[in-house]
Amino acid sequence: MITLAYKIDDRLPHVVYAHASPPSRGGVSLFDGRDITSDTARDFVSEDSATRRAAEELEGAGFRVLARAPATISIAGPPALYEEQFGTSLVTVEREVIQRGAPQLRTTRTFLDSAGADLPGLIAPGGRWARFLEGVALDAPASRVAGAVAPPRPDYWHLTLDDVAEHLGARTVHEQGIKGAGVRLTMVDTGWEPVPYFAERGSKGSVVLGPEAADPGVDEDGHGTCESANAFAVAPEVDFTMVKFRDPLLVDAFDTAASQHPRPHIISMSVVAEEKYPPLSADSLILAVSVSLAIADGIVVVCAAGNGHHGYPAQHPEVIAVGGVHRDQHGGLEASDYASGFTSALYTDRLVPDVSGLVGMLPGATYILLPAPPGSDIDQSHAKEPYPFGDGTTAGDGWVVLSGTSAAAPQVAGVCALLLQTDPALEPREVRRLLEASAVDVTRGASNKDTGGIARPNRDNATGYGLVDADAAVRLARQRRQGGAPR
Fold first, then answer.
1. For the chain, which has fewer Cβ within 10 Å, the N-terminal or C-terminal residue?
2. From the CA atom positions of the chain, what is the Rg in Å?
3. Could you report the per-residue pLDDT of 393-430, keeping only the tens digit for each?
């Protein structure tokens, strides 16, 4: 069990971000909700009049209203304002997390909590606020679960993006003219830059800023840019949008993605919250509603399972959770011991992942050569150490060698795009079933030791149904469209 240590409040940030929830139309508080899915999510939506009145009250009290979503209002303000208005004391909590998705590198990050809260991160407003709000969820920090025109040539075995397309069966589908054209794929990540590699390949995209994010033309971290290359490798003609998020405003960024016009067909997330034990934190309950509403609206949601994390929202029962399979230089397949695979403690009989993409092995998952903004954080950090802990490339050269479920999630999202081009009428649950039914079963190896999944014949909690196979999935989609495959 993770041990939490409360500290004095001298580490509170100058600005605290949170989500305020007006009364839910179903009569049950969002924070009392259990198993929030697309069937129940609309019960936690607030009436427009209630949202408008609550927003007016919050602004009148001095909060900044950043955005309004169907179930919540995103707000910001100094810690003292929260304490004064809601009659609480904010405290900091040190919690163990995984650095940049590398399971062998552990540190702590500072989370905010309300002293005596029933749920992690929940403020229960009293007094006059009880008329306007059923709760306030403090935003939690999120984790990214982790490349010159001429690419470097590392002297160790690795995959290129062309290899990724080949090994996932996408190249055969491309030869049939199916490349994701007309399918709108939105990623939520650190940003996106049109680096020379994308220009050479004709890969195009746009950037939308989530609340409080800035500089749409810059991806300072680099994570979003390099991981997007995995989606383009599988679905090179996809209509691509990046929602650049500012940590800890992950829920707001997801809501921004889901509310784009026209609506995306697919949302891919390689950014996770850690949720190992019940109950779900207040922030994750709000994310559960947002995800459920998106799926109810027909959006396919694809999420990384984590790299030693117990990732959320990958555990949500209607999300396509993505783990990792390692394909060696001889074509052998085994579960990646870098990627997460586990049985969720939050949902009954929920195995994570559902399917898997290509991921390297410990210690560094140094596996796929990817383009990145030259000089970005990820470009420099991965060049600091020699292989296998680092990638041995030059800092500032615009290339990294990495993987993790951050790479696997957009790979699978790309396969989803190929399926939706094949049959635009597919619903999210049907897309997931096609991926599961066509995946290559993996029977060797184990997932990251901190999550404990073991690969066995058929479905398991290490790789799910196995490695996605775009060619087999598209063939099944065609059969289904012709009435030959079960729905």
1. N
2. 22
3. 888 899 999 999 999 999 999 999 999 999 999 999 99
CB 198 within 8 A of CB 371: yes
How many Å apart are CA 372 and CA 394, to the nearest integer?
12
Enter the tokens of residue 227: 């991981």
As a whole number of angstroms, the distance between CA 197 and CA 148 comes to 8
What amino acid is encoded at 64 in this protein? R
CB 89 within 8 A of CB 65: no
Distance CA(285)–CA(203), nearest Å, equals 36
CB distance 359 to 403 below 8 Å: yes
Characterize 39-69 residue by residue with b for buried, 16 or more Cβ atoms within 10 angstroms of its Cβ, and e for exposed: ebbbbbbbeeebbeebbebbeebebebbbbb
Tokens in use for 341? 């695979």
Residue 75 pLDDT more than 80? yes
Token pair belonging to 425: 């009428």
For 287, 430, 478, the CA distances from 40, given in Å and listed in that order, are: 14, 19, 32
Cα separation, 291 vs 41, whole angstroms: 9
- Residue 363 DSSP class: T
CA distances 276 to 114, 203, 305, 306, 388, Å, are 20, 37, 12, 12, 29
Whole-angstrom distance, CA of residue 62 vs CA of residue 42: 30
Question: Strand 300-304 to strand 239-244: parallel, antiparallel, or no bridges (unpaired)?
Answer: unpaired
Q: Where are the alpha helices (DSSP H) in 423-469?
A: 428-438
Task: Examine the pLDDT at 100 and tell me if it is beyond 60.
Answer: no
- Strands in 106-114's sheet, in edge-to-edge order, are 5-7, 90-98, 106-114
Pairing of strands 351-352, 333-335: unpaired
Task: At 350, give phi and psi (nearest 5°).
Answer: -90, 110
Strand, helix or coil for residue 213: coil
CB 139 within 8 A of CB 349: no
- In which element (H, E) is residue 74 found? strand 73-77
Strands 122-123 and 368-371: unpaired
Residues in the chain, overall count: 487
pTM for the full predicted model: 0.89
Beta bridge partner(s), residue 445: 335
Using CA atoms, how far residue 61 sits from 47, 78, 126, 306, 386, in Å, is 21, 12, 15, 39, 53
